[in-house]
Amino acid sequence: MDNLPHSQSGSEAGGGLPVIQYWVEQTLTPQGLRLWQTLNHHSACLSCAWGTGGQKGGFVNEAGEYLQRCAKSVEAIAAELQPGIKPGFFQQYCLHQLQQLTSQECDRLGRLSYPLILRPGASHYEPISWEEVFQIATKAFSIAPERIATYSSGRSSNEAAYLLQLLMRSLGSNNLADCSDLCHAPSTVGLKQVFGSGTSMVCLESLKHSDCVVLIGSNAPANHPRLMNELIQLRERGGKVIVINPQIEIGLVKFASPAFPIKSLLTGGSDISSLYLQLIPGSDVALFVGLQKSLLEQNLIKNKYLSAYTQGWEAVLDYARHISWHTITTTCGLSQEEITAAAYLIGTSQRVVFAWAMGITQHSNGVDNVFSIANTALITGNAGKLGAGTMPIRGHSNVQGFGSMGVTINLRQEIKQALSQLLGKSLSETPGYHTRDLIEAAQQGKVDTLFCLGGNLYAANPNLQQAKQALSQIETIFYVSTKPNLGHFHGLAKQQTLLLPVFNRFENPHKTTTESGNNFVRLNDEGKSHLQPPEADLISEVELITEIAHCLHGETPINWRKLQDTTYVREVIAKTIPGYQQLATIDQTKQEFIIAGRIFNEPKFPTADGKAQIFVTPIPQLTLPHPTAFGLAENQQGIVVILGTGRSYGQHNTVVYRSADKYRGMPHRHCILMNPTDIKTAGLKPHQQVTVRGDAGELKNIEIIAGAIREGVAFMFYPEANVLFTASTDPKSGTPAYKRVAVCVFVDSHRQGS
């Protein structure tokens, strides 16, 4: 049954020696000692939402297992331990020079260590006092609430997230855009409708009881390496892993984990995939309807379970029963035999976890993709029991915590009531802007003040030219960050742009908390920054937000400066956020916890009738334009492919730590990974320089790399490739379709003739 495909990257396994080499290199740097001290600090990892850390120690997960750090974590910490940018730097380099920097070069400038402002008409950022920052903020926030917006990322704490949304609600604004709008919003929207809860129903302990994991649209070896340890252990106990991905990621075939050093040395790593399905991007619904059809034909449906615990299942099975195999296979590009084999593994396993990342959500029908996965889990009885269920794999360390704290435009009714009572008034009912709506509103001149708590709003969006133009219509933008990024030099406001330096998670002078993607709340100890006065002038995010609130409101309706005490903030959170009651005593008990009401080990769900709700998911009609749609002449050489954008192995979100991607064989950022057959069919050659054109722009001098990717599909790195396309959005969630973009790859006429 195992079909382990051959990688064309030149690597035998993911992880392994390159990871060890990187750790050694970092250890031998001047900051090596501080790096190891920080790795052992009692705080959650800065990287993915699977990260380790907290009160059990820097290398220990919630199950008490050791050696749970990865290279991504080391990269993130090493970047935060860089020296501060010297005071004269921004006087020396003008904005035009800074705009020539790459993402990696921006990050390597060092830590932001003092507040800066770009004033109207200026060509240089200049230092500014915190006193003037608060004066500007007071004026910028004292406008009509519908013209104020925020954007946030998951690098911050629960406490900062809670205070951010509390400030916005106190002003009467619901414009709380978040980075999750660009990635996992379909998971939250879809799962909430099906199960009444928008997060993973599987905790780490539950995952350890699984005998099958279906991993869809995820490059876990690069983006969630800790999950790989669980997959290795699952395979060792005889379980199966079905990987669904248009691109063969070598780490999903075989992975050498530092957590299992002897096995990695003796065997070169552990087998991961039992079955690897390379489907056409955007056809996930077709595949899952096909799985449902095959499960019906193999008599592997759990009818009694469906009758007892679900609603709407008859229509879903009827749709699968009557759709033709021809429609399914031609849409997803997989054979009936492949789908049947996968269905058999799922249907005959006892405890199946369905896990996915942005290969599922970043589509124009992302919510339907999530529905189709949930449907498959339900018709096989794999929801509401130990070792089984749905598990979205979130990419940023505390992005889920932000949603829990109310940083969302879709605020839960019970939170809304609690916040109304806390603030002494009804909350605004005006719909807020999610991220794409925010860009559209800014472009139309509807936003005057934008407060960005982390993140890179400019580079994370599709159509970078539109993002730049939209942000330039905003009067005042505050960027709260630890290091410079592309947005600080390209996403500039009409009047004034401020860069506000803050402590990172392991430097805060107070304790904070974060939430993992599997609903585990960690307590982060206070720390000390290596950036010291007088050269450094940093502030905590909690102090920044509460001081702005104090300037605006004084001590009404609550004592905002008292909220600078994060112990008090946690007490308030415990009273207003469902499932967070244990946060009130976490300072005394040091007891980290799983949020109540989210892990389902029995099929009773928090829906209106206690049953899971099943929705029919129509198979999409997928087409591609002709090269002439991109302006090519009929006789001009070129090929239209489906482009998916993503991170490199040395990258976290928009931050690039290393330009090369060893595992994919991509030596730099300006590459396009293509199938060898497509390269040959188009009359092109590996390593040839080509132009890649989308519906919003083009990139020249892009190197072709032949790789293990499905025919008709290509891969490029973001944020660089975001300039190419506008991207359609999922109407149910607002998330852009980064994983299915039509582009044309061709040789310029002048290059052909040269």
UniProtKB/TrEMBL annotation:
Give the stretches traversing the membrane. Answer: none
Q: Where is the Molybdopterin dinucleotide-binding domain?
A: 642-741
Q: Which residues form the Molybdopterin oxidoreductase domain?
A: 111-477
- CC terms in the record's Gene Ontology section: membrane
- Protein known as: Oxidoreductase
Superkingdom field: Bacteria
Species whose genome carries this gene: Richelia sinica FACHB-800
Q: Which Pfam families match?
A: Molybdopterin, Molydop_binding
Q: Which UniProt keywords apply?
A: Iron, Iron-sulfur, Metal-binding
Kindly list the GO molecular function terms attached to this UniProt entry: 4 iron, 4 sulfur cluster binding; formate dehydrogenase (NAD+) activity; molybdenum ion binding; molybdopterin cofactor binding
PANTHER family of this UniProt entry?
A: PROTEIN YDEP (PTHR43105:SF4), RESPIRATORY NITRATE REDUCTASE (PTHR43105)
